[in-house]
Specification:
Length: about 160
């Protein structure tokens, strides 16, 4: 699978140039196999890109601006969706690629692992999680037992 990045080599917009450089630099850093397809010099590339960006993803003027990213024939997204995926550490999912061996599955796993540790710490002797309400109820029951038990008094009244 080759990632196709549609670019404009002779764009006059510095914003577009920066976005293109950001996408390419990040893909290179991840060692993702990609192909640059220039829409400024090649009319076929421009037409293919415009026809294959989904209607719901096109801007209001109907003409999608580069960079546009595809996995073979499947549309991945534009720069904004790429940037969001990058921020969420989900670039491989965005590109439709399997993550490399040894990479973290998702950052959410850290939170889940912390919750599991907290659950383990909260377990009672019977290995069942103890909620705060259960703990408070247990303490109240212990206090009631102390109050209802007969107490020996040191005072003795007149006989």
């Amino acid at each position: 699978m080759v990632i196709k990045v549609f670019l404009a080599s002779s764009s006059g917009s510095t914003a577009i140039k920066k976005k293109q450089q950001d996408v390419l630099g990040f893909l290179e850093a991840l060692k993702v196999d990609y192909a640059q397809l220039d829409i400024a010099c090649n009319e076929d590339n421009r037409m293919w890109m415009r026809e294959n960006v989904p209607v719901e993803k096109k801007p209001t003027n109907g003409i999608p601006l580069p960079p546009q990213i595809f996995n073979e024939e499947s549309y991945c997204g534009d720069y904004e969706t790429f940037f969001d995926a990058k921020e969420d550490n989900a670039v491989y999912a965005f590109l439709g690629l399997p993550p490399p061996p040894g990479s973290k599955k998702a950052p959410v796993k850290e939170e889940e692992a912390q919750e599991e540790v907290e659950d383990e710490e909260a377990k009672g002797e019977d290995d069942q999680p103890v909620s705060e309400e259960e703990e408070e109820l247990r303490q109240l029951e212990e206090e009631e037992e102390e109050v209802t038990e007969p107490r020996e008094t040191a005072c003795s009244g007149p006989s």
